Every structure is written in structure tokens, then in C-alpha cells.
Amino acid sequence: MALWWAVGAIGAVAALGTVATKAVQRRVRTARDDHANRPALWNRFYSIDWGDTTTNNYGFAPAEGHHPQRFQHQMYRELFRRLAAKRDIKPTLSLLEVSCGRGGGLNAALADHPDAFDATGLDVAASAVEFCRKTYGESDRLHFVEGSAMALPFPDSSFDVLLNVEASNDYPDRDQFFREVHRVLKADGIFLYTDSFRTEKAAEAREALKAAGFEAEFSDITANVAEACRLDSPRRRDVIRSRAPLLAKLFLGRQLDNYAAVEGSRKYDAFRTGRRTYLMTAATKA
Predict the structure, then answer these.
(1) How many structural domains compose the chain?
(2) Domain identity same for 18 and 32
(3) Distance set, CA 250 to CA 106, 227, 245, 254, 264 (Å)
(4) CA-to-CA distance for 228 and 223, rounded, in angstroms?
(5) How many CB atoms within 10 Å of residue 74?
(6) Residue 47: which domain range?
(7) Average pLDDT of the chain?
């Protein structure tokens, strides 16, 4: 989920206190547009106690099971189904998730495929990496690393699978990220990728992947995402109510609803009406 503007909102409110709402919103827009500040904003975001919420994406419906974050976990299941259609999921596959956040999605995927992966989660926010290490531990088969999607701190041809879920819209240069993915994937590696785009810009993602050296067949899952947002709206409202900082709720209640794409928000309506398109692929090297 594109969280960076919400991070900026929290930082802006904390800095400005009781100034007028419009001034806060101007500060939010400034933080949103300055890519250089985003690692610090993300670090602040993941420093907040979000309770049991460990997976941030808009979700996929229908979803399996009864876990409170089942729609978010289903997004990962759909990606791994596409992986299974291209190669056997078997022990010792090396997996990297770029922008793992609080690690809930990666943890759910590993639970679905016990002993299949040697996994690494990477995030630009030190607080996210610290949370993951504390929550999930580390071992010979699971590591968490602080680093940038723009310059992945790994040698060429390091991974069988690279996973990126609803994070690339926050990067300063998506094309550079795709080139880095191509570099660190093995020759037969798979890039599991999903994100949303303004519908008129969706073709650019296809072209960017092709330019980076990938072959990708995209699935349009917009309807599944919109339905997940609708069904999951009560939980998301509760997370905002119970966990978001007080000043953020006072000054930016409507924006927080939009960030979470709850039913009735602009973001939800963009998915529902097709103004925004959500795509998913398991791309291979050309």
C-alpha cells in the first residue's frame, strides 16, 4: 500500500502541532513530493505501534481463512500461485522481498511453503527491520536487511525469486528498481510483482519491465482489490481509530480513510470505477 503520504502526514502533524489543517496538508504534500526524505518518513511510520497489523497492501478477494489480515495475505498467495505455475516450489530456493515492511506478508508466505525458501526481507526503514528481527527472529534461512530498492546490497544473480508487493510507487525511480531486480535475479529467476497505477499510465509499467529485460504477462486484479477494500473496511477503520496518532486523526481523518482505501474514499472509488488499475505478474528474464 502506498503509505508514504501517511507517513508524511504523521510527521507533519507532530512537527506543527495545532496549526491550521490547511497548513498541515501543505506540509504533507511537501513531504510526499520529496523523495529524499522518504526513508526517514518510513522509519518514523514503522516506529509507531501498529499492534497486530503487520501486512500493508490493499488486499485480494476472495480470501482464504479467517485471519484478520486474510485479504492482505491472499495477495501473496496469488503471487505464489503464479510462481508455482512457472517452476517447482522446492527447498533451497532463495527469495528476496524488497520493501518487506513489518514482514507479515513474507511470514505468511513462508508459513504456506514450509522449508521451501531461504528468505531475506529488505526494507529502507531501520525500524521495520528491527521489528522483523524482533518478531520473527533470524536463522540460517531467514534474514532481514536494511537497504534501498534503488541499489540492492546483493551480488549479481543472487536470488531465484524476488518479491515486491505494492511498494514501487514510492520509489524515486521505478525503472532503476526494475534494473536492480534484473541484476540480482538468477538467469531463470522469477520476479513476483504487483502494484496499482493510474489506468492511463498502466502501459508504462509493462514497457519499463520490458526495457529492463523482462517478459511479463500481467493480470488485471482491480476488481478483486476493490472487493477486498470493501470487505476489509471495518477492520481498517478500527486500525486507524485505535492506532493512528491522535493529531493525525484530528487533522487528517479523511486522508487516512483514503490512504486505507476504505469504502467511500477517493482511492476506493478509483478502483471501483476503473480510474486506477491494479496489476500482477510473475515476470521472467527475456
Answers:
(1) 2
(2) yes
(3) 33, 28, 9, 10, 19
(4) 9
(5) 22
(6) 4-54+237-273
(7) 90
- Asked if the bond preceding 68 is cis, omega within 30° of 0, the reply is no
CA dist., res. 261 & res. 32, Å (int): 18
Check residue 7 and give its pLDDT: 47
- Are residue 252 and residue 280 in the same domain, yes or no? no
Residue 251 is given by DSSP the state H
| Per-residue pLDDT tens digits for 136-146 | 999 999 999 99
| Residue in 131, 60, 137 with CA at minimum distance from that of residue 100 | 131
Residue 16 belongs to some domain of the structure: yes
In tens, the pLDDT along 241-257 reads: 999 888 777 767 788 89
Q: Which amino acid is at 156?
A: D
Q: For the ranges 31-40, 138-147, 170-179, 205-214, which has the lowest average pLDDT?
A: 31-40
CA–CA separation, 183 vs 157, rounded Å?
Answer: 6
